[in-house]
Amino acid sequence: MMRPESNFKLLLASLVAIFAVGTAVAYAGPLLDPSVNRPSSPAAVVTKEGLRGAAIYEGEGCWYCHTQQVRPVSNDLGLGLVTEANRSSRDSASSLGMARIGPDLGCFGDRAPGEGLADYLRDPRAARQYSKMPGYRYLSDAELGDLSAYLAGLTCAGEAS
């Protein structure tokens, strides 16, 4: 008959082995999946103007009212390709958004022309009388151009869904 200390050691060794195998399966499985390791393009075209525009977007708090995540639900039909996890892996957390008070901007560049966007950002109510979006008259023309470049660069066309 085995002593209780031997049973405890055997139980402890078994638990550690089970934990190690479970951890290996949980982490190694996804790492071996080729779709997880597929590189993705960033959500926005990376240009100097786009980078400056992204900083303005975050600094002005646009992400409080706009998301950049097209969800696989009927309300998001027509907004663009559904956002996959690897698509937003290079974006800052705040650019993904907090709430959807205004329209989703995840594939904005695919569905909205870049022309006139700076004018709209300067005074949204001139184009849409009941817009809740604040105007950005205090931004310079260059800053509005950079923000427009960032928004126009938010495209999804051509990516696999």
What does this structure look like?
This protein is an all-alpha fold. The chain has two domains: about 1-35; about 50-150, Cytochrome Bc1 Complex, Chain D, domain 2 (Orthogonal Bundle), CATH 1.10.760. The chain has seven helices and no strands. The relative contact order is 0.17.
Précis, in short:
The chain has helices at 4-32, 48-59, 93-96, 108-111, 117-122, 124-127, 141-152. With 161 residues, the chain is an all-alpha fold. Helix 2 (48-59) crosses helix 7 (141-152).
Bin the strand percentage. under 5%
Q: For this entry, what is the oligomeric state of its chains?
A: single chain
Uncertain regions: pLDDT < 50 for 5+ in a row?
none
How many angstroms does the end-to-end distance come to?
61 Å
Keywords:
161 residues; mainly alpha; Cytochrome Bc1 Complex, Chain D, domain 2; 7 helices
Q: Secondary-structure blueprint of this entry?
A:
Layout lengths: L3 H29 L15 H12 L33 H4 L11 H4 L5 H6 L1 H4 L13 H12 L9
Helix pairs in contact: 2-7
